[in-house]
Amino acid sequence: MVASRAIGSLSRATASRMLRCPGYICRSFSGTSALRTRTHINYGVKGDVAVVRINSPNSKVNTLNKELQSEFMEVMNEIWASDQIRSAVLISSKPGCFIAGADINMIASCKTPEEVTKLSQEGQRMFEKLEKSTKPVVAAISGACLGGGLEVGVPAAFDMMLTGRNIRADRAKKMGLVDQLVEPLGPGLKPPEERTIEYLEEVAVTFAKGLSDKKISIKRDKGLVETFSFTELTSYAMSIPFVRQQIYKKVEEKVRKQTKGLYPAPLKIIDVVKTGIEQGSDAGYLSESQKFGELTMTKESKALIGLYHGQVLCKKNKFGAPQKEAKHLAILGAGLMGAGIAQVSVDKGLKTILKDATLAGLGRGQQQVFKGLNDKVKKKALTSFERDSIFSNLTGQLDYQGFEKADMVIEAVFEDLSLKHRVLTEVEAVIPDHCIFASNTSALPINEIAAVSKRPEKVIGMHYFSPVDKMQLLEIITTEKTSKDTTASAVAVGLKQGKVIIVVKDGPGFYTTRCLAPMMSEVLRILQEGVEPKKLDALTTSFGFPVGAATLVDEVGVDVAKHVSEDLGKAFGERFGGGSVELLKQMVSRGFLGRKSGKGFYIYQEGVKSKNVNSDMDGILASLKVPPKSDVSSDEDIQYRLVTRFVNEAVMCLQEGILATPTEGDIGAVFGLGFPPCLGGPFRFVDLCGAQNIVDRLRKYEAAYGTQFSPCQLLIDHASSPNKKFFQ
Amino acid sequence: MTWVTGWPLYGLTLAAQTKSKKTLAKPNMRNIVVVDGVRIPFLQSGTSYKDLMPHDLARAALSGLLHRTNVPKDVVDYIIFGTVIQEVKTSNVAREAALGAGFSDKTPAHTVTMACISANQAMTTGIGLIASGQSDVIVAGGVELMSDVPIRHSRKMRKMMLELNKAKTLGQRLSLFSKFRLNFLAPELPAVAEFSTSETMGHSADRLAAAFAVSRQDQDEYALRSHSLAKKAQDEGLLSDVVPFKVPGKDTVTKDNGIRPSSLEQMAKLKPAFIKPYGTVTAANSSFLTDGASAMLIMAEEKALAMGYKPKAYLRDFVYVSQDPKDQLLLGPTYATPKVLEKAGLTMNDIDAFEFHEAFSGQILANFKAMDSDWFAQNYMGRKTKVGSPPLEKFNNWGGSLSLGHPFGATGCRLVMAAANRLRKEGGQYGLVAACAAGGQGHAMIVEAYPK
């Protein structure tokens, strides 16, 4: 429509002409490697610019492994040695991924810290050579560029090293991580992704040429730390040792507070940066590689790598593609869960009906979805236009209109079996034959819900966690009658919603709720024994739980917790005993429902951040007080009483076949219940801590409290033969 | 222009070939004709029209049309104008202009908006009124004044001012004033970006050119062609739709002032205007901000003949299309061309005069490549084969929006009149008009020469 000529002619002064590159030549330079075919890297020459293409075979992403590193060095050495080449462009042939970082398998296969240190040093040498390159090197990055991948492209960033967060391209430009942005292209004469990479290469080649011809200069002369979070003034301040010491101290304090000292890596990173600044880069590099080597051998590293692999596994649909892809969803109940499920569905393009019984309830749910999307607009993750167009995927209604087109109905009505029966019958009268009925329940057995269904093979459980848009886990529950295609479809929808999925068998509390219940029962007993909620919270978070145990009850909702513990108490009897449900009952009768009612163990007020203990609880707690047993009431004992009951129940779920694999058990516990990630999940914890140690603990508490702590058979088996591990 | 030879010279032989259809007249449908059309000279914004208001330009075009056609004002049934950036004081600019131009105050008028194809929408709205028998005589036109655009107070400021209106007591007023912050004064300019994507059109054009691998040099060469052809047409007096406009307090404007043939060397010196520093779209290969207005007299054929007119052309089949406003913002002509040809039962070979709206050189050349690509036709348009790109020797022979200028709301009528006048001058039966528009929309129409 318009290009302002006035603006254009003002900038007429400097000449900039598109450089036209003559033919594209592909050749090898050094005699020795001329015949060698490389698997990860190949390169060609455009004019006097070498174009190095990274493309790891048989993989969606490029990772920094030994072969890639050595091939890369080989190619770079040829480029540096060649007279014809004056600059180089690094680019990935994979759309959407430059280099995703170091190869985890490569690190996991190392047996000693020295091995890792050596690997790390090789990597450092590569980056150092690249940094000191006499010929300009332009990295053309499209998509994921993480960890070591980022180091190939640009010098690493201070705060990125600490948190490993993802940075969007425009922000990276602002931070000075990248010098130029190339926006993705639309369709042309070939697929957009292909042409975009080509275009990126063309632009990068022009830049590389400009750099070697000294027509373009790059203003990025500041070192590692200065470039990022610090301005001119602070960079002067950083040159004063005293100020530096203060900054180290502050950063360290902050990190300690965030990690509770449970994750060793961030503190070591600070150490390394400190060494680098105080003793020069050589010492810094040496320290970096050594510390890295040490870190990879820690239990925490093994636990986190295990979780990474588990997560990758739980992001796949092992049930195959469903016969009919679900495109139209209908959600019953616009409460916190229903609206949350709607939100993660509409933003993936699923047409979603949100039905509630009342206009007020529906309006609240619609507002929740809108707010969730609008918060993303505020963070600039979405434009307001995208928000509106996503929001138009949502239809709010009070009746069953349009259900005849639904491929899947997810009910999230109140946890009451007769209510669930009623909606199931109502829905089955209006939905098409292929439509799946999924129940979002945290404890009601699916087969009991399915009992009134005309087609139980289409009924399944989909247990989401609150808040749905933040919690990654989805627990899918199959009954004996649920068909494989129904399961495949539920997993497909869950994956589309961005969930990490475990598929478990039906039973009271399924897997997650069942593990949590005995631990919650223990929480009540501990409170009854006189431990303050704040103290209990401190003990659990310092063990690695992201949320304190008392706070968790408030967050889940006291009424829900009561409901669950009564239900599961009936199903499992004495083993789920411990604390008295009476405590929860009295809280409910006083209206202390937790965060949602403003009062629980704590008081919640809008705009008040600091949490104050609800003093009205004192009376209730005093009336239900039981004497503590001194030999099992040390801080550590309290922590282990909680965690061993959790772990014992998890192992029992595997023993009974509720869980199919220990991996799913770990993923479910960590992503759904906040089991400490640094321990890797209950099964990894047993492996790393030793089954015998866990059994010993349980026996000790069993002596004090009885069968609630009796170790399950599978755990005893593992303890009696030390070779038995959940993960080999 | 060396590269022009790259296009096969079909045209020389084609004129003699027989057409797929002798005429596009349809049984039981009224034939609709354009009696004549005019425009005031298109000027770069900020020049002679800069102190006027949009309805002043529209009024000048309407007076020019009255003068040119001598149509009795009471036979005009309806007046429709297109405009894009609206002056808030004259939101129905068609009515304000008509009243001042001496049309009857009994003739209703309305204003339409559809970005760069607003005047096309005005014409086709008129066609609809005639075809359905509601009207016999329509005036359609368009206007744009980019020298003055409505710049608003910020939303916060506006809100405060409106609340101040309602405040009754001094206390209420003072409490409102106390909420005032300096940033309330930051003005709001009319959006130059797509609302849906926040991307400016030039930026999108640059990405489009890159997607179709259109080089900077090709774009500059095309822009130079447009300016050279426009200059030639102006010098030879071919731009007969232009009517002089005596600007109050200034000299009479008689010709377009944006035609500036330069040299490729000069053009190559410009820096990219949108994607810096490596983009290819520059001020020299883009259309410029323009002030101008156009108007046309459209009638049912029998009415025109009864009134003793010799019409210039038939207005035949037309289509509107729309597609992805982000990555295909400016590909309207690619989508519209095969569709309108199919509708009319014609092929590319039947067309003697192409008049496409030139938003950017890169946009025109990308459309050529898209129209010439089977891959694009199959993967994005759901068509089996490509439609083919127009032969350059029949294409925008008297210049285009790049050189003549592009007053958003007025360009559509210029395109149709250029096609009609070229068919009369160069001989030939069918003309094809096509244009892209913001919002990812597009339009095409077949113009058939009126037998001499």
UniProtKB/TrEMBL annotation, chain A:
Q: Which UniProt keywords apply?
A: Fatty acid metabolism, Lipid metabolism, Lyase, Multifunctional enzyme, NAD, Oxidoreductase
Pfam families per the UniProt record, alphabetical = 3HCDH, 3HCDH_N, ECH_1
What does the record give under GO molecular function? enoyl-CoA hydratase activity; long-chain (3S)-3-hydroxyacyl-CoA dehydrogenase (NAD+) activity; NAD+ binding
Broad class of enzyme this protein falls into? lyase
* Pathway in which this enzyme or protein is active: Lipid metabolism; fatty acid beta-oxidation
Query: Which residues are marked as site: Important for long-chain enoyl-CoA hydratase activity?
Result: E151
Q: Domain 3-hydroxyacyl-CoA dehydrogenase NAD binding, which positions? A: 329-506
* Family per similarity comment: In the central section; belongs to the 3-hydroxyacyl-CoA dehydrogenase family. In the N-terminal section; belongs to the enoyl-CoA hydratase/isomerase family.
Q: Name one GO biological process term.
A: fatty acid beta-oxidation
Which InterPro entries does its entry note? 3-OHacyl-CoA_DH_CS, 3-OHacyl-CoA_DH_NAD-bd, 3HC_DH_C, 6-PGluconate_DH-like_C_sf, ClpP/crotonase-like_dom_sf, Enoyl-CoA_hydra/iso, Fa_ox_alpha_mit, FA_oxidation_alpha_subunit
* Cellular component GO terms held in the UniProt record: mitochondrial fatty acid beta-oxidation multienzyme complex
Query: What is the name listed in the Swiss-Prot or TrEMBL entry for this protein?
Result: enoyl-CoA hydratase
TrEMBL record, chain B:
PROSITE patterns recorded for this chain? Answer: THIOLASE_1 (PS00098), THIOLASE_2 (PS00737), THIOLASE_3 (PS00099)
* Domain of life assignment: Eukaryota
- Please tell me where this protein is predominantly located: endoplasmic reticulum
Q: Which residues form the active site?
A: C116 (acyl-thioester intermediate), H406 (proton acceptor), C436 (proton acceptor)
Alphabetized UniProt keyword annotations: Acetylation, Acyltransferase, Endoplasmic reticulum, Fatty acid metabolism, Lipid metabolism, Membrane, Mitochondrion, Mitochondrion inner membrane, Mitochondrion outer membrane, Transferase, Transit peptide
Q: What are its E.C. numbers?
A: 2.3.1.155, 2.3.1.16
In terms of Pfam families, this protein maps to: Thiolase_C (PF02803), Thiolase_N (PF00108)
Q: What Gene Ontology terms for biological process does this UniProt record contain?
A: fatty acid beta-oxidation
Q: Name one GO molecular function term.
A: acetyl-CoA C-acyltransferase activity
Gene3D superfamilies linked to this entry:
3.40.47.10
Q: Which residues form the Thiolase C-terminal domain?
A: 309-448
Report the pathway entry: Lipid metabolism; fatty acid beta-oxidation
- Localization in the cell: Endoplasmic reticulum; Mitochondrion inner membrane; Mitochondrion outer membrane
* Signal as UniProt keyword: no
Which reaction does this chain catalyze? octanoyl-CoA + acetyl-CoA = 3-oxodecanoyl-CoA + CoA; tetradecanoyl-CoA + acetyl-CoA = 3-oxohexadecanoyl-CoA + CoA; an acyl-CoA + acetyl-CoA = a 3-oxoacyl-CoA + CoA; dodecanoyl-CoA + acetyl-CoA = 3-oxotetradecanoyl-CoA + CoA
Gene Ontology CC terms: endoplasmic reticulum; mitochondrial fatty acid beta-oxidation multienzyme complex; mitochondrial inner membrane; mitochondrial outer membrane
Q: Where is the Thiolase N-terminal domain?
A: 32-302
Quote the InterPro entries the UniProt record gives: Thiolase, Thiolase-like, Thiolase_acyl_enz_int_AS, Thiolase_AS, Thiolase_C, Thiolase_CS, Thiolase_N
Description of how the protein assembles with itself and partners? Heterotetramer of 2 alpha/HADHA and 2 beta/HADHB subunits; forms the mitochondrial trifunctional enzyme. Also purified as higher order heterooligomers including a 4 alpha/HADHA and 4 beta/HADHB heterooligomer which physiological significance remains unclear. The mitochondrial trifunctional enzyme interacts with MTLN. Interacts with RSAD2/viperin.
User: What family does the entry list?
Assistant: Belongs to the thiolase-like superfamily. Thiolase family.
Known role: Mitochondrial trifunctional enzyme catalyzes the last three of the four reactions of the mitochondrial beta-oxidation pathway. The mitochondrial beta-oxidation pathway is the major energy-producing process in tissues and is performed through four consecutive reactions breaking down fatty acids into acetyl-CoA. Among the enzymes involved in this pathway, the trifunctional enzyme exhibits specificity for long-chain fatty acids.
Q: Any idea what this protein is called? A: Trifunctional enzyme subunit beta, mitochondrial
Please name the gene that encodes this protein. Answer: HADHB
